[in-house]
Design brief:
With about 180 residues, this protein is of the alpha+beta class. It contains four helices and twelve strands. It comes from Brevibacillus nitrificans.
C-alpha cells in the first residue's frame, strides 16, 4: 500500500531516491516514510519439563498449537510486552530469562520476531477465549500427537538444543541507558 499523505503534517507525498532506494517523502515538511515494520514476540515457558502452548482461535493458524506471543505496543518495552502477552493469553505469570531466537521476515510489512525463554512464576493455564481457545503445559510426548505450527516446532528445537544461555539482559548497560534494554551473550 502506497503512502500518499504525510503522517506528520498531512500533505501529499512523492517518491524520491534516498540512499539508492525509492522512498515516499512529504512535499511540504520533508518527512521520510522509511517503511512498514512490525515486531512480534514469543514465549518459551517451561514447567516440570513441559512447555506452555496455546491453540489459536483466530487466523493465521487457527486450530494449531503454538507458543504464546503477540506484538509490541508503540511505547511498551519489549520485555514488558512478552510478560503481558503470556499473562493475557494464558493467565500464566512468567519472567524473561533470555532471548533464544530471532526470525526476520522482510516482506511488504517487515516482521521481526523475537523468542524469549521465560521462567515460570505462577498460575494455571487458562485461554483468553479470544486469541486462543486452549492453553496448557505439554510434554514432548504429548506434542507428538498435537498439530503444532512449524515455527513453534523450530522454536522448541532451538530451546532444547541451545548450548549457551542465549542473549541475556546486560544489567550494567541497561542501568546506564535511558530506559533502553540491552541484551548480550
Amino acid at each position: 500500500m502506497a503512502v500518499n499523505f504525510c503522517m506528520s503534517c498531512g500533505h501529499p507525498m512523492e517518491t524520491r531516491e534516498i540512499d539508492g532506494v525509492d522512498r515516499r517523502v512529504c512535499t511540504a515538511c520533508g518527512h521520510v516514510h522509511w517503511g512498514n515494520y512490525s515486531i512480534g514476540v514469543g514465549a518459551l515457558v517451561f514447567k516440570d519439563e513441559k512447555m506452555l502452548l496455546v491453540r489459536r482461535a483466530q487466523e493465521p493458524g487457527k486450530g494449531k498449537w503454538t507458543n504464546p506471543g503477540g506484538y509490541i505496543e508503540q511505547l511498551e518495552p519489549i520485555e514488558q510486552t512478552i510478560v503481558r502477552e503470556v499473562l493475557e493469553e494464558t493467565g500464566i505469570q512468567a519472567e524473561v530469562k533470555s532471548i533464544v531466537a530471532v526470525r526476520d521476515q522482510p516482506r511488504s510489512v517487515h516482521n521481526v520476531y523475537i523468542a524469549f525463554e521465560m521462567n515460570y512464576v505462577e498460575g494455571e493455564p487458562r485461554p483468553d477465549e479470544v486469541e486462543v481457545d486452549q492453553a496448557g503445559f505439554f510434554s514432548l510426548e504429548e506434542m507428538k500427537e498435537m498439530e503444532l505450527a512449524s515455527f513453534t516446532r523450530w522454536l522448541l528445537d532451538v530451546a532444547l538444543h541451545v548450548d549457551k544461555n542465549g542473549l541475556t539482559i546486560d544489567q550494567k548497560a541497561t542501568a546506564v541507558g535511558n530506559g533502553d534494554v540491552y541484551f548480550r551473550l
